[in-house]
Design brief:
Helix content: over 70%
Low-confidence stretches: none
Strand content: under 5%
Order of helices and strands: HHHH
Number of strands: 0
Shape: elongated
Distance between the termini: 9 Å
Length: about 80
């Protein structure tokens, strides 16, 4: 059982690292000052974009990683 939990821990750690590294940067730098803010199709529909999916995967894998770590500590 402990070996299975270790394998799940490694898989969750890899998923968490990849999902965090694939997310785009939140800072615009000087782009927002020069061009100004514009409403695009993607800014209006953020719930359906790849960025939202990566956010959900990151949250799920982080919670699962924390729970798995606690279970490993108890075993």
């Amino acid at each position: 059982m402990k070996l299975g939990l270790f394998v799940v821990e490694v898989i969750l750690a890899l998923i968490l690292m990849v999902s965090v590294l694939m997310q785009p940067s939140k800072s615009d730098g000087f782009k927002g000052l020069v061009q100004g803010a514009s409403d695009t199709f993607f800014s209006k529909n953020k719930k359906r974009t790849k960025e939202a999916l990566l956010y959900k995967i990151t949250i799920f894998s982080a919670v699962a990683f924390a729970i798995n770590t606690l279970i490993l500590n108890l075993v």
